[in-house]
Amino acid sequence: MARIVQKYGGTSVGDVERIKKVAERIKASRDEGNELVVVVSARAGVTNELIARAKALCAEPSDRELDQLLAIGEQETIALTAMALHGVGVDAVSYTGAQAGIFTDAVHTKAKIKTINAQPLEKDLKAGRVVIVAGFQGINDDGQITTLGRGGSDLTAIALAAAVKADKCEIYTDVDGVYTADPRVVKNARKLNEISYDEMLELASSGSKVMQSRSVEFAKKYGVVFEVRSSFNHNPGTTVKEEVEYMEKVVVRGVAVDKDQAKVIVSNILDKPGSAAKVFRALADANVVVDMIVQNVGRHGIANLTFTVPQTDTGKAQKALVPVLDEVGGGQVAIHEHIAKLSVVGVGMKTHSGVAASLFQALANANINIELISTSEIKISVVIDQDRAEEAARVAHAAFSLDQA
Amino acid sequence: MARIVQKYGGTSVGDVERIKKVAERIKASRDEGNELVVVVSARAGVTNELIARAKALCAEPSDRELDQLLAIGEQETIALTAMALHGVGVDAVSYTGAQAGIFTDAVHTKAKIKTINAQPLEKDLKAGRVVIVAGFQGINDDGQITTLGRGGSDLTAIALAAAVKADKCEIYTDVDGVYTADPRVVKNARKLNEISYDEMLELASSGSKVMQSRSVEFAKKYGVVFEVRSSFNHNPGTTVKEEVEYMEKVVVRGVAVDKDQAKVIVSNILDKPGSAAKVFRALADANVVVDMIVQNVGRHGIANLTFTVPQTDTGKAQKALVPVLDEVGGGQVAIHEHIAKLSVVGVGMKTHSGVAASLFQALANANINIELISTSEIKISVVIDQDRAEEAARVAHAAFSLDQA
What we know:
The structure is a homodimer. With about 400 residues, the first copy, chain A, is α/β, with parallel strands linked by helices. The first copy, chain A, is about 35% helix and about 25% strand.
């Protein structure tokens, strides 16, 4: 008997028939004698429907009321999932975030979990009931409903797994696990049996959409081992866990492509101390997250700063930069949205040299130009022309023989 | 400046456009300087949709999970109504039943309100905010969500009006108020300006669908004066309040027809002490509510018992009666569903005689046969053939000149 936290995403509970399938899967695990806490998201589409209604009534709905509204999505699925379990003879009870004792800070629409009081839930577990918990939501100290923002249901599952000391956490989604590359782009991409937290984090920040970084960070911090797998089949998924020595034998674990970045070039500024600081302070004050940064110093003490920002933030970035240009000796801002970031990730890079050279050579052989380069201990990222992104992913995947286990 | 509780039913908040209209109405009252607590129901149709989904998953959904599910209907409308108010520049904040401190007993799907802790709500009122409260729902001592059953949102409004000592409670619905008869049946039915709690109660139990009895009972108990009016126009509605002397000048306030009753005849039982008790004990044990009762004693110590029960309960009634028949000396059970109950109601009956005679004469003149009669201090009810029900309502309405103020 194990204690397992399972999490089912919005497509897995998308309608009554799918909820029935989820109930069967839960029942099968229950019949094996496991204790189960099940976290469910809102039905796919519900959140967008609710936001559309909200915006029809108020151009900028208040975050507090938005949370009050959006929380009903999961409250529907917890009750329906509990009923589906009753329908197949499994004792089950549903919990809203508040009822499950998920206490958060007061930052509506992107709250952070502070503590979980799992006592009431433990009582039901001990009574042999499957406990169904609403993902994505919590309650603050004032009794206000909060939501956790994007990827919030994964976070709920991982935080609950830590709180109830689960033996295992299973994240059910609409993909089979984590792949060496996006299988829609790279045909011979291979599903990974396991991956380290750090690799998963680098992939998440590099455009892989399997999971949000903060859920992985939370899992890493509390040592929650979790498996990403599909709710539509019974294939084993990918286990995400602390790095172990044998993982380092593999130089590159995977390849990711991010097309949602834009390249910003601030050119012809004075190359003197403090110029770069002023530029990035202005961006930080405007809440623009900057990713790759390169500074070129040209002739006559003139420098160019190049960096990437999320495409959705280019307007904010431009606005923030205009007043700074005078302070740094004039200059221009140019924005290129038609780029892509290609990243290769692997803990083996720590102990293997020549990874960057191999990547650059492979891209050069394919005549793909590199515009920017940045590296971390376990990742190399390059910015390239967006039109060549898929090809570059295939080239990198082949260069490191990722199709072979 | 007055403190007002307003309640808007499901059709009044049926979609985004109607919610906007409700927001305008609230704003108008706010602009007059009133303090407002607004109770809203779920959008019309949502509750049935949710129940359909529940039943697709489980033939008999648990009451606890049903409450967890149904409560989202109002949680949606409170948030949307608050947003709609923000959209027109009115400060507003939404409260679920739990947040509004509406504590109930633990009887899921038909909970009773025990206490209301209006303190948090008072704080927002004092800060000048319109407070939007979810109708129909509460929380029990264990933190479980409960719902109040049919007419629950009216009850929430009236209970809140008592708790916050409101000057006025306005129940907005899709009719203009309480009429002397159903205007769809009696063309010259007249809207009443006011009516006493007792008259309203008798009408509610006689087939008038304007409001459930228990909300009126609650209002009577706590002396909450309320007005029933339409959210689709600005006509004054009907004020329901404690009986005052001048009300007794009107002998008959209104006429109601109930077609949802069935007549049960238990015939040929022994006319000895305890027979009737056994019959009605069996029905009570089966949770069948019995309304009109008549006993005829025939020859040779043989009696017939005739009474009415809700049509939905005839199966239960028959099942409950079978084992009793032997105990009361044999006999048969016959059920007639094709009946209607016609009632005339008025506090003036207490001091005026001849009302029954006038009613019977009017029906006789129209050749409408009376099958059963029952009376209370302020009501006379007769059972007639269902096919003559509308005609009988018009005849009674005319007999007491109810079209004239």
